[in-house]
Design brief:
Layout: H1 2-25, E1 36-40, E2 45-46, E3 49-54, E4 57-59, E5 65-67, E6 74-85, E7 95-101, E8 112-116, E9 124-136, E10 141-145, E11 153-163
Length: 165
């Protein structure tokens, strides 16, 4: 019976230590409702990228829009990416959309890639969950289309602001 109590004591200590470590590490998520962010585009070109737009407009809960930049000392953690292509130009033409930081060179370094095979009415689109992607303060988010028909693409990025550690 003594070994049984020793085992229960050992398991209890391990569980308490594991819980303490979990609470110390914390969970990454929005701390306040105001940390939630939905971004769209003002249709401003993404640097020298000829097929991309900045995601530089924040949608407010009251339906108004405001210019957006990631505040100093924070990161934007992306949790979702929605896009629609009004016209791919050809029925059943595939479209791939890239979510990426703006670069001075115009080189696209995609962090999120979304693909749709297109439809008979020459439209495409997708809604995807995103994990493990964060943008730092000073970075501008952009999206680009592989077909170059970016003018008919609308996009939304969902996420939250968190302290940069």
């Amino acid at each position: 019976m003594t070994d049984h109590f020793k085992f229960i004591g050992f398991v209890t200590v391990v569980l308490v230590l594991a819980a303490a470590m979990q609470s110390r590490a914390g969970v990454l998520g929005p701390k306040n409702p105001s940390d939630l962010v939905t971004l769209t585009t003002s249709f401003t070109a993404c640097g020298s990228d000829p097929i991309g737009y900045r995601l530089d407009e924040k949608q407010n809960p009251d339906g108004t829009m405001e210019a957006f930049a990631i505040p100093p000392g924070q990161v934007l953690v992306v949790t979702g990416f929605d896009w629609t292509q009004g016209s791919t130009g050809t029925a059943n033409k595939a479209e791939t959309i890239f979510l990426h930081p703006e670069t001075a060179s115009g080189v696209i370094l995609p962090l999120v890639v979304s693909h749709d095979d297109g439809s008979g009415d020459a439209r495409a689109g997708a809604s995807i969950a995103v994990t493990g992607v964060a943008f730092k303060s000073g970075q501008t988010l952009c999206y680009s289309a592989n077909t170059g028909r970016i003018g008919s693409v609308s996009a939304l990025v969902h996420g939250f602001l968190a302290k940069d550690k």
